[in-house]
Amino acid sequence: MVEAILIDLFSLPANLQNNIQGLLCNTLETIEKCSSVPAPFVYIMCCQSQGSEWKGEQESLLPALRDFQSLKERLEVVHALTTAAALYIIKQRLDEEDLSVIKVILSPLRKDIMKVYIDHLFTAVYHFEFEDLQVAFDCENLQIAEPQTEGQMQDIALIQSEIQMYLESLPSLNGELTILRSSLIPDDIFLHGFTTRTGGISYIPTLSSCNLFSSSKRRDPQVVVKENLRRLAKAAGFNPETFHRVKIDHANAVCIMGKTEPDSYDGIVTNQKGVTIAAPGADCIPVLFADPVRKACGAAHSGWKGTLLGVSMATVNAMVSEYGCNLKDILVVLGPSVGPCCYKLPHELAKEFHRIDPTCVRLFDSTDPYIDIRRATRILLESGGILPENIQDDSVTDHNESVTFCTACHPDKFYSHFRDGTNFGTQIGFISIKD
Protein backbone atom coordinates (compact mmCIF):
# COMPACT_ATOMS: atom_id res chain seq x y z
CA MET A 1 0.00 0.00 0.00
CA VAL A 2 1.35 3.43 -1.00
CA GLU A 3 2.32 5.48 2.06
CA ALA A 4 3.41 8.67 0.32
CA ILE A 5 3.02 10.33 -3.06
CA LEU A 6 5.71 12.44 -4.69
CA ILE A 7 4.65 14.81 -7.48
CA ASP A 8 7.62 15.88 -9.60
CA LEU A 9 7.08 19.27 -11.21
CA PHE A 10 10.77 19.89 -11.92
CA SER A 11 10.39 19.11 -15.61
CA LEU A 12 7.71 21.72 -16.28
CA PRO A 13 8.65 24.45 -18.76
CA ALA A 14 8.25 28.07 -17.67
CA ASN A 15 4.83 28.61 -19.26
CA LEU A 16 3.38 25.71 -17.30
CA GLN A 17 5.10 26.79 -14.09
CA ASN A 18 2.97 29.93 -14.32
CA ASN A 19 -0.14 27.76 -14.19
CA ILE A 20 1.17 25.49 -11.46
CA GLN A 21 -1.84 26.05 -9.22
CA GLY A 22 -4.22 24.72 -11.86
CA LEU A 23 -2.02 21.72 -12.50
CA LEU A 24 -1.87 20.91 -8.82
CA CYS A 25 -5.62 21.09 -8.50
CA ASN A 26 -6.01 18.47 -11.22
CA THR A 27 -3.40 16.19 -9.68
CA LEU A 28 -4.72 16.47 -6.15
CA GLU A 29 -8.24 15.70 -7.36
CA THR A 30 -6.91 12.47 -8.88
CA ILE A 31 -5.06 11.56 -5.68
CA GLU A 32 -8.06 12.33 -3.47
CA LYS A 33 -10.40 10.24 -5.62
CA CYS A 34 -8.15 7.29 -6.37
CA SER A 35 -5.90 6.87 -3.35
CA SER A 36 -6.35 3.67 -1.35
CA VAL A 37 -4.94 5.53 1.66
CA PRO A 38 -7.46 7.88 3.33
CA ALA A 39 -4.91 10.68 3.77
CA PRO A 40 -1.53 9.82 2.25
CA PHE A 41 1.50 12.06 2.69
CA VAL A 42 1.93 14.15 -0.45
CA TYR A 43 5.15 15.93 -1.41
CA ILE A 44 5.34 18.30 -4.37
CA MET A 45 8.74 19.01 -5.93
CA CYS A 46 9.08 22.40 -7.62
CA CYS A 47 12.11 24.02 -9.23
CA GLN A 48 13.35 27.22 -7.62
CA SER A 49 15.56 29.11 -10.06
CA GLN A 50 18.25 31.47 -8.83
CA GLY A 51 16.65 34.84 -8.18
CA SER A 52 13.16 33.61 -9.02
CA GLU A 53 10.04 34.67 -7.18
CA TRP A 54 9.63 31.15 -5.80
CA LYS A 55 11.08 31.32 -2.29
CA GLY A 56 9.99 27.90 -1.14
CA GLU A 57 7.06 29.04 0.98
CA GLN A 58 4.19 26.60 0.89
CA GLU A 59 1.85 29.56 1.26
CA SER A 60 2.48 30.53 -2.38
CA LEU A 61 0.44 27.52 -3.48
CA LEU A 62 -2.27 27.70 -0.84
CA PRO A 63 -4.98 28.71 -3.36
CA ALA A 64 -4.50 25.32 -5.03
CA LEU A 65 -4.73 23.48 -1.72
CA ARG A 66 -7.79 25.01 -0.07
CA ASP A 67 -10.27 22.54 -1.54
CA PHE A 68 -8.36 19.45 -0.46
CA GLN A 69 -8.93 19.28 3.27
CA SER A 70 -8.29 15.51 3.47
CA LEU A 71 -4.79 16.04 2.05
CA LYS A 72 -3.93 19.46 3.37
CA GLU A 73 -2.47 18.45 6.73
CA ARG A 74 -0.16 15.90 5.09
CA LEU A 75 0.84 17.90 2.04
CA GLU A 76 4.10 19.77 1.63
CA VAL A 77 5.52 21.79 -1.25
CA VAL A 78 9.29 21.55 -1.60
CA HIS A 79 11.07 24.21 -3.67
CA ALA A 80 14.77 23.61 -4.37
CA LEU A 81 17.43 24.63 -6.85
CA THR A 82 18.20 21.04 -7.86
CA THR A 83 16.49 17.67 -8.04
CA ALA A 84 19.08 16.30 -5.60
CA ALA A 85 18.25 18.96 -3.02
CA ALA A 86 14.49 18.50 -3.34
CA LEU A 87 14.68 14.70 -3.15
CA TYR A 88 16.97 14.79 -0.12
CA ILE A 89 14.58 17.10 1.72
CA ILE A 90 11.70 14.78 0.88
CA LYS A 91 13.76 11.78 2.00
CA GLN A 92 14.12 13.46 5.39
CA ARG A 93 10.36 13.84 5.63
CA LEU A 94 9.83 10.19 4.68
CA ASP A 95 12.30 9.07 7.33
CA GLU A 96 10.69 11.25 9.98
CA GLU A 97 7.40 9.44 9.36
CA ASP A 98 9.05 6.04 8.78
CA LEU A 99 7.51 5.77 5.31
CA SER A 100 8.89 3.29 2.79
CA VAL A 101 6.37 2.83 -0.07
CA ILE A 102 6.26 5.84 -2.38
CA LYS A 103 4.42 6.55 -5.62
CA VAL A 104 6.17 9.06 -7.91
CA ILE A 105 3.99 10.99 -10.37
CA LEU A 106 6.13 12.54 -13.09
CA SER A 107 6.60 13.17 -16.78
CA PRO A 108 7.47 9.98 -18.68
CA LEU A 109 10.60 11.71 -19.97
CA ARG A 110 11.76 12.26 -16.38
CA LYS A 111 11.36 8.65 -15.30
CA ASP A 112 14.83 7.39 -16.23
CA ILE A 113 16.65 10.34 -14.71
CA MET A 114 14.53 10.14 -11.55
CA LYS A 115 15.43 6.47 -11.14
CA VAL A 116 19.13 7.42 -11.19
CA TYR A 117 18.59 9.97 -8.42
CA ILE A 118 16.59 7.46 -6.39
CA ASP A 119 19.22 4.74 -6.83
CA HIS A 120 21.83 7.09 -5.35
CA LEU A 121 19.82 8.76 -2.58
CA PHE A 122 17.78 5.80 -1.30
CA THR A 123 18.44 2.19 -0.32
CA ALA A 124 16.48 -1.05 -0.78
CA VAL A 125 14.46 -0.21 2.35
CA TYR A 126 12.29 2.00 0.12
CA HIS A 127 9.94 0.84 -2.63
CA PHE A 128 9.03 3.21 -5.48
CA GLU A 129 6.16 3.03 -7.95
CA PHE A 130 5.90 5.34 -10.97
CA GLU A 131 2.89 6.94 -12.63
CA ASP A 132 2.87 9.18 -15.70
CA LEU A 133 2.25 12.82 -14.96
CA GLN A 134 0.14 13.60 -18.04
CA VAL A 135 -2.22 10.72 -17.19
CA ALA A 136 -2.69 12.02 -13.70
CA PHE A 137 -3.24 15.58 -14.93
CA ASP A 138 -5.19 14.63 -18.06
CA CYS A 139 -3.47 17.62 -19.65
CA GLU A 140 -2.06 17.38 -23.17
CA ASN A 141 0.27 20.31 -22.62
CA LEU A 142 2.26 18.31 -20.10
CA GLN A 143 3.38 15.91 -22.79
CA ILE A 144 5.93 18.49 -23.93
CA ALA A 145 7.59 18.47 -20.51
CA GLU A 146 11.11 17.18 -20.76
CA PRO A 147 14.52 17.35 -19.08
CA GLN A 148 16.74 20.28 -20.04
CA THR A 149 18.75 18.16 -22.46
CA GLU A 150 18.77 14.53 -23.48
CA GLY A 151 22.47 14.40 -22.68
CA GLN A 152 21.85 15.41 -19.07
CA MET A 153 19.25 12.68 -18.68
CA GLN A 154 21.78 10.08 -19.77
CA ASP A 155 24.78 11.45 -17.94
CA ILE A 156 24.99 9.60 -14.64
CA ALA A 157 28.27 11.32 -13.79
CA LEU A 158 26.51 14.69 -13.94
CA ILE A 159 23.86 13.49 -11.51
CA GLN A 160 26.50 12.10 -9.17
CA SER A 161 28.31 15.43 -9.25
CA GLU A 162 25.11 17.32 -8.46
CA ILE A 163 24.37 15.02 -5.51
CA GLN A 164 27.93 15.26 -4.22
CA MET A 165 27.97 19.07 -4.42
CA TYR A 166 24.70 19.27 -2.52
CA LEU A 167 25.81 16.88 0.22
CA GLU A 168 29.12 18.72 0.60
CA SER A 169 27.16 21.93 1.22
CA LEU A 170 25.26 20.48 4.19
CA PRO A 171 26.36 21.42 7.72
CA SER A 172 27.79 18.85 10.11
CA LEU A 173 25.35 17.56 12.72
CA ASN A 174 25.65 17.00 16.47
CA GLY A 175 29.05 18.57 17.01
CA GLU A 176 32.50 18.50 15.50
CA LEU A 177 34.07 15.44 13.93
CA THR A 178 36.12 13.70 16.64
CA ILE A 179 38.92 11.16 16.19
CA LEU A 180 40.27 9.08 19.08
CA ARG A 181 43.95 8.17 18.90
CA SER A 182 46.18 5.78 20.80
CA SER A 183 49.49 6.82 22.34
CA LEU A 184 50.75 3.26 21.78
CA ILE A 185 50.97 3.68 17.99
CA PRO A 186 53.84 6.04 16.98
CA ASP A 187 52.39 8.97 15.06
CA ASP A 188 55.65 9.71 13.24
CA ILE A 189 55.19 6.45 11.29
CA PHE A 190 51.45 5.78 11.28
CA LEU A 191 48.28 7.77 10.74
CA HIS A 192 45.47 6.17 12.71
CA GLY A 193 42.34 6.73 14.72
CA PHE A 194 38.91 5.59 15.84
CA THR A 195 35.86 7.59 14.84
CA THR A 196 32.93 8.64 17.01
CA ARG A 197 29.39 9.36 15.87
CA THR A 198 29.64 13.18 15.56
CA GLY A 199 30.54 15.51 12.72
CA GLY A 200 28.80 13.89 9.73
CA ILE A 201 25.57 14.56 7.83
CA SER A 202 23.53 11.41 8.62
CA TYR A 203 20.31 12.72 10.20
CA ILE A 204 18.32 9.60 11.20
CA PRO A 205 18.61 9.43 15.02
CA THR A 206 20.18 5.96 15.26
CA LEU A 207 22.56 6.81 12.37
CA SER A 208 23.33 10.40 13.32
CA SER A 209 25.69 11.78 12.37
CA CYS A 210 29.00 10.31 11.14
CA ASN A 211 27.74 6.88 10.09
CA LEU A 212 30.38 5.11 7.98
CA PHE A 213 28.55 2.05 6.67
CA SER A 214 25.65 1.58 4.27
CA SER A 215 23.59 -1.53 3.64
CA SER A 216 20.35 -2.51 1.93
CA LYS A 217 18.71 -2.87 5.35
CA ARG A 218 19.42 0.66 6.54
CA ARG A 219 18.18 4.09 5.46
CA ASP A 220 21.57 5.77 4.99
CA PRO A 221 22.57 5.57 1.30
CA GLN A 222 26.14 5.04 0.11
CA VAL A 223 26.45 8.66 -1.08
CA VAL A 224 25.89 9.94 2.48
CA VAL A 225 28.43 7.48 3.88
CA LYS A 226 30.87 8.59 1.17
CA GLU A 227 30.43 12.22 2.19
CA ASN A 228 30.96 11.33 5.86
CA LEU A 229 34.14 9.50 4.84
CA ARG A 230 35.31 12.51 2.81
CA ARG A 231 34.92 14.74 5.87
CA LEU A 232 36.73 12.20 8.03
CA ALA A 233 39.57 11.91 5.51
CA LYS A 234 39.94 15.70 5.37
CA ALA A 235 40.06 15.97 9.17
CA ALA A 236 42.39 12.98 9.63
CA GLY A 237 44.67 13.70 6.66
CA PHE A 238 44.27 10.63 4.46
CA ASN A 239 43.18 10.17 0.85
CA PRO A 240 39.62 8.74 0.61
CA GLU A 241 40.46 7.42 -2.86
CA THR A 242 43.01 4.98 -1.38
CA PHE A 243 40.75 3.85 1.47
CA HIS A 244 39.95 0.15 1.93
CA ARG A 245 37.49 -1.27 4.44
CA VAL A 246 37.12 -4.95 5.35
CA LYS A 247 34.22 -6.83 3.76
CA ILE A 248 32.62 -8.29 6.85
CA ASP A 249 31.89 -12.00 7.05
CA HIS A 250 32.17 -12.40 10.85
CA ALA A 251 34.94 -14.93 10.29
CA ASN A 252 38.76 -14.89 10.16
CA ALA A 253 39.81 -14.43 6.53
CA VAL A 254 42.49 -11.76 5.93
CA CYS A 255 43.05 -9.65 2.82
CA ILE A 256 46.65 -8.88 1.80
CA MET A 257 46.72 -5.52 0.03
CA GLY A 258 48.22 -5.94 -3.42
CA LYS A 259 47.07 -9.54 -3.79
CA THR A 260 43.77 -10.96 -5.02
CA GLU A 261 40.99 -9.64 -2.82
CA PRO A 262 38.76 -12.30 -1.21
CA ASP A 263 35.00 -12.01 -1.59
CA SER A 264 34.76 -11.32 2.14
CA TYR A 265 37.23 -10.88 4.97
CA ASP A 266 37.39 -9.43 8.47
CA GLY A 267 41.10 -8.63 8.55
CA ILE A 268 43.27 -6.57 6.21
CA VAL A 269 47.04 -5.84 6.19
CA THR A 270 49.40 -3.68 4.16
CA ASN A 271 52.94 -2.32 3.96
CA GLN A 272 52.06 0.20 1.24
CA LYS A 273 52.51 3.83 2.20
CA GLY A 274 49.55 6.16 1.82
CA VAL A 275 46.98 3.35 1.74
CA THR A 276 44.41 3.61 4.54
CA ILE A 277 42.83 0.39 5.79
CA ALA A 278 39.92 0.20 8.17
CA ALA A 279 37.62 -2.05 10.17
CA PRO A 280 34.08 -1.07 11.23
CA GLY A 281 32.53 -1.59 14.61
CA ALA A 282 29.21 -0.99 16.31
CA ASP A 283 29.76 -3.20 19.38
CA CYS A 284 32.21 -5.48 17.54
CA ILE A 285 35.83 -4.51 18.17
CA PRO A 286 37.72 -2.50 15.53
CA VAL A 287 41.28 -3.73 16.17
CA LEU A 288 44.34 -1.91 14.81
CA PHE A 289 47.81 -3.45 14.38
CA ALA A 290 51.10 -1.60 13.81
CA ASP A 291 54.70 -2.77 13.41
CA PRO A 292 56.99 0.29 13.54
CA VAL A 293 60.08 -1.86 12.79
CA ARG A 294 58.90 -3.48 9.53
CA LYS A 295 56.52 -0.58 8.83
CA ALA A 296 53.43 -2.68 8.30
CA CYS A 297 49.92 -2.37 9.66
CA GLY A 298 46.58 -4.12 9.85
CA ALA A 299 42.94 -3.75 10.86
CA ALA A 300 40.40 -6.34 11.94
CA HIS A 301 36.71 -6.52 12.75
CA SER A 302 36.20 -8.79 15.75
CA GLY A 303 32.69 -9.59 16.94
CA TRP A 304 31.88 -12.63 19.03
CA LYS A 305 32.15 -14.94 16.01
CA GLY A 306 35.40 -13.43 14.77
CA THR A 307 36.85 -13.48 18.28
CA LEU A 308 36.14 -17.18 18.69
CA LEU A 309 37.59 -17.86 15.22
CA GLY A 310 40.75 -15.93 16.07
CA VAL A 311 40.55 -13.11 13.52
CA SER A 312 43.01 -10.95 15.46
CA MET A 313 45.75 -13.60 15.48
CA ALA A 314 44.98 -14.37 11.84
CA THR A 315 45.74 -10.71 11.08
CA VAL A 316 48.95 -10.88 13.12
CA ASN A 317 50.01 -14.08 11.33
CA ALA A 318 49.41 -12.40 7.96
CA MET A 319 51.74 -9.55 8.95
CA VAL A 320 54.39 -12.06 10.06
CA SER A 321 54.18 -14.23 6.94
CA GLU A 322 53.81 -11.43 4.38
CA TYR A 323 56.08 -8.72 5.75
CA GLY A 324 58.47 -10.57 8.05
CA CYS A 325 57.14 -8.91 11.19
CA ASN A 326 58.37 -10.07 14.58
CA LEU A 327 55.64 -10.85 17.11
CA LYS A 328 57.37 -8.78 19.81
CA ASP A 329 57.26 -5.67 17.61
CA ILE A 330 53.56 -5.72 16.78
CA LEU A 331 51.38 -3.23 18.65
CA VAL A 332 47.65 -3.86 19.01
CA VAL A 333 44.93 -1.40 20.00
CA LEU A 334 41.36 -2.41 20.79
CA GLY A 335 38.90 0.30 19.79
CA PRO A 336 35.44 1.29 21.05
CA SER A 337 33.27 -1.81 21.48
CA VAL A 338 30.59 -3.24 23.71
CA GLY A 339 31.95 -4.00 27.17
CA PRO A 340 31.30 -6.86 29.59
CA CYS A 341 29.08 -4.43 31.48
CA CYS A 342 26.46 -4.65 28.73
CA TYR A 343 27.10 -7.56 26.38
CA LYS A 344 25.17 -10.80 26.83
CA LEU A 345 25.09 -14.02 24.82
CA PRO A 346 23.07 -17.23 25.19
CA HIS A 347 24.57 -19.77 27.56
CA GLU A 348 25.63 -22.16 24.76
CA LEU A 349 27.75 -19.46 23.15
CA ALA A 350 29.07 -18.31 26.52
CA LYS A 351 30.55 -21.80 26.97
CA GLU A 352 32.94 -21.10 24.06
CA PHE A 353 34.28 -18.00 25.79
CA HIS A 354 34.44 -19.85 29.09
CA ARG A 355 36.74 -22.37 27.39
CA ILE A 356 39.12 -19.58 26.40
CA ASP A 357 39.22 -18.42 30.01
CA PRO A 358 36.55 -18.48 32.75
CA THR A 359 37.22 -14.78 33.43
CA CYS A 360 35.75 -13.95 30.01
CA VAL A 361 32.27 -14.79 31.33
CA ARG A 362 30.32 -13.29 34.22
CA LEU A 363 27.26 -15.02 35.71
CA PHE A 364 28.14 -18.14 33.74
CA ASP A 365 25.24 -20.19 35.14
CA SER A 366 22.62 -17.71 33.98
CA THR A 367 20.58 -18.06 30.78
CA ASP A 368 22.37 -15.11 29.15
CA PRO A 369 25.78 -14.54 30.75
CA TYR A 370 27.79 -11.35 30.32
CA ILE A 371 30.68 -11.76 27.86
CA ASP A 372 34.02 -9.95 27.68
CA ILE A 373 35.08 -10.22 24.03
CA ARG A 374 37.95 -7.81 24.69
CA ARG A 375 39.48 -10.03 27.36
CA ALA A 376 39.08 -13.05 25.09
CA THR A 377 40.83 -11.16 22.29
CA ARG A 378 43.71 -10.18 24.60
CA ILE A 379 44.14 -13.72 25.88
CA LEU A 380 44.22 -15.14 22.34
CA LEU A 381 46.74 -12.50 21.23
CA GLU A 382 48.99 -13.13 24.22
CA SER A 383 48.75 -16.88 23.65
CA GLY A 384 49.84 -16.24 20.08
CA GLY A 385 52.96 -14.37 21.13
CA ILE A 386 51.93 -10.68 21.34
CA LEU A 387 53.49 -9.02 24.40
CA PRO A 388 50.90 -7.98 27.01
CA GLU A 389 52.42 -4.48 27.20
CA ASN A 390 51.92 -4.12 23.44
CA ILE A 391 48.15 -4.51 23.71
CA GLN A 392 46.05 -1.46 24.55
CA ASP A 393 42.67 -2.08 26.11
CA ASP A 394 41.79 1.00 28.12
CA SER A 395 38.98 -0.73 29.97
CA VAL A 396 41.76 -2.61 31.79
CA THR A 397 44.82 -0.34 31.65
CA ASP A 398 43.25 3.11 31.90
CA HIS A 399 40.02 3.72 33.74
CA ASN A 400 39.75 7.14 32.05
CA GLU A 401 39.28 5.29 28.76
CA SER A 402 40.88 7.25 25.95
CA VAL A 403 40.09 4.69 23.21
CA THR A 404 38.35 1.52 24.43
CA PHE A 405 34.99 2.90 25.49
CA CYS A 406 31.89 0.75 25.85
CA THR A 407 29.78 1.65 22.82
CA ALA A 408 26.51 0.65 24.48
CA CYS A 409 27.19 2.86 27.53
CA HIS A 410 27.92 6.04 25.56
CA PRO A 411 25.02 6.87 23.20
CA ASP A 412 26.30 10.44 22.78
CA LYS A 413 29.68 9.21 21.46
CA PHE A 414 29.16 5.87 19.72
CA TYR A 415 26.78 3.72 17.72
CA SER A 416 25.65 0.41 19.15
CA HIS A 417 23.77 -2.41 17.41
CA PHE A 418 23.10 -3.95 20.81
CA ARG A 419 21.51 -0.72 22.03
CA ASP A 420 19.93 0.78 18.90
CA GLY A 421 18.53 -2.19 16.99
CA THR A 422 18.48 -2.92 13.26
CA ASN A 423 18.90 0.58 11.81
CA PHE A 424 22.16 1.28 13.62
CA GLY A 425 25.17 3.37 12.63
CA THR A 426 28.79 2.28 12.43
CA GLN A 427 32.13 3.81 13.45
CA ILE A 428 35.53 2.62 12.24
CA GLY A 429 39.15 2.18 13.23
CA PHE A 430 41.59 3.19 10.50
CA ILE A 431 45.36 3.13 10.00
CA SER A 432 47.93 3.88 7.30
CA ILE A 433 51.69 4.18 6.90
CA LYS A 434 52.78 7.77 6.37
CA ASP A 435 54.64 8.70 3.20
From TrEMBL:
Molecular function in Gene Ontology: copper ion binding; hydrolase activity; S-methyl-5-thioadenosine phosphorylase activity
Gene Ontology, cellular component aspect: endoplasmic reticulum; nucleus; peroxisome
Localization (cell): Cytoplasm; Endoplasmic reticulum; Nucleus; Peroxisome
Keywords: Acetylation, Cytoplasm, Endoplasmic reticulum, Hydrolase, Immunity, Inflammatory response, Innate immunity, Metal-binding, Nucleus, Peroxisome, Phosphoprotein, Transferase, Zinc
E.C. no: 2.4.2.1, 2.4.2.28, 3.5.4.4
Gene3D superfamilies in the cross-refs: CNF1/YfiH-like putative cysteine hydrolases
SUPFAM superfamilies noted in UniProt: CNF1/YfiH-like putative cysteine hydrolases
Catalytic activity: inosine + phosphate = alpha-D-ribose 1-phosphate + hypoxanthine; adenosine + H2O + H(+) = inosine + NH4(+); guanosine + phosphate = alpha-D-ribose 1-phosphate + guanine; S-methyl-5'-thioadenosine + phosphate = 5-(methylsulfanyl)-alpha-D-ribose 1-phosphate + adenine
Biological process annotations from GO: inflammatory response; innate immune response; regulation of defense response
UniProt record similarity statement: Belongs to the purine nucleoside phosphorylase YfiH/LACC1 family.
Record's subunit section: Interacts with FASN. Interacts with SDHA. Interacts with ATF6, EIF2AK3 and ERN1.
Protein name (database record): Purine nucleoside phosphorylase LACC1
Origin species: Tricholaema leucomelas
Gene name per UniProt: Lacc1
